[in-house]
Amino acid sequence: MSVLIQNSPLAGRNRGKRAPDEEGRTLGSNPARVLGDGIKGAFRIGQTAMVVGGQGVRWLRGDRHPLPWLMRDTFERLGATYIKLGQFIASSPTFFPREYVDEFQNCLDQTRPLPYAVMERILREELGSAVDTEFTRIDRTPLASASIAQVHGARLTNGEEVVLKIQKPGVSNILLTDLNFLYVSARVVETLAPKLAWTSLSGIIQEIQRTMMEECDFVQEANNLEAFREFLDRTGNTEATVPRVHRRLSTGRVLTMERFHGVPLTDLDTIRRYSDDPERTLITAMNTWFSSLTQCEFFHADVHAGNLMVLEDGRVGFIDFGIVGRIDPDTWTAVSDFMGALMNADFGAMADAMARIGVTREGVDIEALARDLSGLQQHMETVVPTDPQEMPDIETLSEETDDDVNELLMDLVRVGEDHGLHFPREFALLIKQFLYFDRYVHILAPEMDMFLDERLNMLH
Q1: What is the pLDDT of residues 126-180, one digit of tens each?
Q2: When comparing pLDDT for 20 and 37, which is higher?
Q3: 3-state secondary structure of 386
Q4: Which SUPFAM superfamilies match (predicted)?
Q5: Which among 21, 73, 132, 302 is annotated as catalytic?
Q6: Which of these, 175, 182, 184, lies nearest to 1 by C-alpha position?
Q7: Section 195-216 average pLDDT
Q8: Mean pLDDT of all residues in the chain?
Q9: What's the pLDDT score for residue 160?
């Protein structure tokens, strides 16, 4: 069960990156902790078996909900790993059946916060005496709480406002145990059902592992933040920014960052207090993201309204770099062509681009694919409306965008798969970000054409 983790380039990134204790030893290297983690892992497997067994008993007693609902309910009962897995399913119509993607839209990652005393123990394990010497205040009530971490506001001794992202206890060990279990299960299924080799269940689990372990590794998130800041500096972009990381106060389980003060990108009324030209602010956000596709080692893969802020000084702030994507230039060119064709309802060009993006073991009939895509025209018009009056109000934008975008993505993937195409997850991630931006354009700059406006540098 250890093969997947040992071979993973992400395995062990948290090790050796914690602050030394007062005697100079590296926290986390204690053999007692390793033994304890092993015992906890065995307990976790037993706990998983009990939850799954309990659900089976409910089924036998007649409590028979549809299988997607039952799986989501089971995942939520199992906690952090499976909640993240549910969110992965919800955001991956290129991998999973539509009924499961639909159901897992309801898998929310909002959890009851743990008491501050529990989180303080993690802080002291990671930062040692710095908790007392470097901070004048740490808010006991969290700003947010999710399955993996809680976020607390704080103030440094120099007066700077920061946020502390603190990993919940035991999360990493639970993730590794659960992912090993899922990987072995997937390999067993592939052995028993060789026809499933094309779907590559074990490969999907490896992709899930990569995504989830990156999100759980705050050293990697700190690296992402600093790499994006370096990209902004290298390209001379002074109109966008990311939170500055305090490295000496950050570890694999604690991330200390500059605290941003501002409003979400779609809060038009308040944006006008911080920016004389909200349309130009939106263009800045879009051009920054577009240029990162070719000039940064990754792109921000979750640019919903809550992760793009307009700061009090008018700059655009990108936050939350736990989820990022990577793409090669040829695929990006094909995705750009696909989006242009989608906006213009050019189904022939859409089919050609999809054939360049997807992986297939046989030839693709471009004309037949275009005909099938044309059947989605009415659905496309609801997601990419041409009339600004058809747009939802700002308060419902994020919720409706998620639902509409995921449904359209599932339809597009279904049509592609009917023609033998199998798409990488980056395809869905990229298209989703494009459609987010298209919605923002219709709200903040309804006269602007996303693909023709010369101020937008989509291919630079």
Answers
A1: 999 999 999 999 999 999 888 789 999 999 999 999 999 999 998 878 888 888 8
A2: 37
A3: coil
A4: Protein kinase-like (PK-like)
A5: 302
A6: 184
A7: 68
A8: 78
A9: 97
Distance CA 428, CA 301 (A): 10
Tokens of 203: 């490969």
Active site residue 313: no
R_g of the chain computed on alpha carbons: 23
- How large a percentage of the chain has pLDDT more than 70? 77
pTM higher than the cut 0.85? no
Residue among 113, 121, 106 nearest 66 (CA): 106
Judge residue 349's burial from the number of C-beta atoms within 10 Å of its C-beta, 0-12 exposed, 13-18 middle, 19 or more buried.
middle
Scan for tokens 């993730």, then name that residue.
Answer: 175
Hey, which residues does 422 pair with through a beta bridge?
359
**Phi and psi, residue 161, nearest 5°:** -80, 130
Tell me which H or E stretch contains 436.
helix 425-444
What is the C-alpha separation between 334 and 35, in angstroms, rounded? Answer: 50
- Asked whether the beta carbons of 13 and 251 are under 8 A apart, the reply is no
Q: How far apart are CA 253 and CA 267, in angstroms?
A: 32
d(CA 56, CA 413): 32
